[in-house]
Automatic annotation (TrEMBL):
Pfam families: Lactamase_B_2 (PF12706)
Native source organism of the sequence: Amycolatopsis rhizosphaerae
One GO MF term attached to the UniProt entry: 3'-tRNA processing endoribonuclease activity
Domain Metallo-beta-lactamase: start-end pairs: 22-221
Keywords in alphabetical order: Hydrolase
UniProt-recorded name of the protein: MBL fold metallo-hydrolase
Lineage summary: Bacteria, Bacillati, Actinomycetota, Actinomycetes, Pseudonocardiales
Amino acid sequence: MSDPLRLTVLGSATPYPEVGNPCSGYLVEGGGARIWLDAGTGTLGELRRYTRLDELDAIWISHLHADHSADLLTAYYGARHAGLTLPAPIPLFGPPGIADRLAHFLTNSAVRSPIESAFAVTELHDGHTAEVGGLHLTTRAVSHGMPAFAVRIRSDTASLVYSGDTGPCANLTALAGGCGTLLCEADWPEVPAGEDPVHHTPEQAGETAAAAGAGRLIVTHVGPFLTPEDAVSRASARFAGPVDYAAPRRVFTLP
């Protein structure tokens, strides 16, 4: 029997870290692989509770807002200057332009910082697929007003879909079709009048899970004007399956 798919919450706060809760970041383990899923502010320190940078098999970034990607900057220093010996640059899957964005911030002279010495960058696109150890990753573009992606991670025993940041959209529902677990953002207490949705409300997270036929919903990225309890309760009103909150340091073993 293969090892189970396991999700560890490194942080789930937005738009900046809370005391005891970093921004968005998760460790997914299964199929003999470890993937750091989003690298929001403060998540690198939490990641080190469970694994080291030189033990990662991949990093996957949903979009380039700081609360999902800022700790890539310090991960670069860790990979190059912390006494680690990387067997090879860490595979980094991220939105178009991610390498140049990192280099622009990290370069302090006429010589571009050698981002590629730490990260083997692959730019995501709608429909991108990859194999990481025994895990299969499928990426879809989602609706966040900028290049942004959701991912389905499948082992031979379980499937996890992570929404990244997005409003409800057909690509996310299709990607999550029949998944065992949907990890879905629930940022907005309500949809602002006159704005195109770029986040879910808790009710919309429940509706997406129900429309996709997901087995389980975990709400994350709960905005500062909601409590986790409110988010779970409101999502549960639209989804009949089990609903949990992505509390920091919580570990989910996925069926």
